[in-house]
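Quick one: structure tokens for this chain, please?
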Amino acid sequence: MGDKSDKHGARLDDELRHETEGLVRGGGPTHAERDHDPEPVETDAGRDPTVAGSSRTVGSPPGMSAGDVAARSEFAKALAGARYPATPEQLSAHVAGEGAPDTAVRALGDLPKREYDGLRDVMDTLGYGHETERF
């Protein structure tokens, strides 16, 4: 009785098992008519169906590479809680206090001496991309 369902009862379980037997055994649709088969999705792998002819990398927004996304994410984590506008000295001191890697502390300390309005301003100055549109 371990493979039977308490929800439907034995008779309905047997009917459902009979209806799905071909699907379970064959590993695919069992319809005799092609019009009733589901459309394949393998051809859509890695493609955004809302954008015709998109050549962007999977998982990254338009205008950014996968490396830009990863770097921006790490900087965003390190700069969480920073108060803007901020100078490079304030930003590097903040990330140093958050335990960020020395490379991030140095990169922020080497920014041109001016006030930065936010993460996007900092990332643009560091040379990382930003998204050109939002979905």
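The longest helix spans residues 10-26.
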